[in-house]
Specification:
With about 180 residues, the protein is mainly alpha-helical. The chain is about 85% helix and about 0% strand. It is built from 8 helices and no strands. Helix 2 runs parallel beside helix 4, helix 3 runs antiparallel to helix 4 and helix 6 packs antiparallel against helix 7.
């Protein structure tokens, strides 16, 4: 009886250790992949002019690392390059730029860039959610609610817009 109980405990311990090991190795590989991309892109862009995609990718890495000032600079370079290359899909660049400004609490600039993203791609759900959040931070509750409702019209199962709009409705009712 004691022997079987010990085997069960050891099996549970082995399962837990395996799960923890898998999670750690997965995170290591993900970090290594990001660091390799960062290194490759930095070297390339320091030596020569890059493409819109390369500037965007490096800026996104900087956003993940919370180096917002450098991300803003790279998003702006991506926009200039996109203009030269006559790139049409610039909405994600404007959205990323807006996110970088939002992270630095420059909400007016964030709002401007989110709106610019929506000019290029009016049904860009992520930009709508981000714009609504920026309006919330600026205490523009009515605009935020309207933006979330617009996102819900385009994507009725949008959990972010549902949750935020319900919260704003409750806030408007109690005010």
């Amino acid at each position: 009886m004691d022997n079987s109980l010990a085997i069960v405990y050891l099996a549970i311990l082995l399962v837990l250790l395996s799960a923890a090991g898998f999670t750690i190795f997965r995170q290591i590989f993900k970090t290594r992949k990001t660091e390799n991309a960062l290194s490759r892109l930095q070297k390339k862009l320091n030596k020569e002019k890059g493409t819109t995609q390369e500037y965007y990718e490096l800026a996104s890495i900087y956003l993940d690392k919370k180096v917002h000032a450098q991300a803003i600079s790279l998003f702006q370079k991506a926009l200039k390059t996109a203009e030269l290359e006559a790139e049409e899909n610039v909405a994600p660049i404007y959205n990323g730029l807006g996110y970088a400004y939002f992270a630095q609490e420059q909400y007016d600039l964030a709002i401007r860039n989110y709106k610019e993203a929506l000019k290029y791609q009016p049904q860009y759900i992520t930009a709508l959610n981000n714009l609504g959040h920026a309006y919330e931070r600026k205490s523009l509750t009515a605009q935020a609610l309207q933006t979330y409702e617009q996102a819900l019209e385009l994507e009725p199962n949008n959990s972010t817009a549902k949750r935020r709009s319900e919260k704003l409705r409750r806030r408007l009712v109690t005010s």
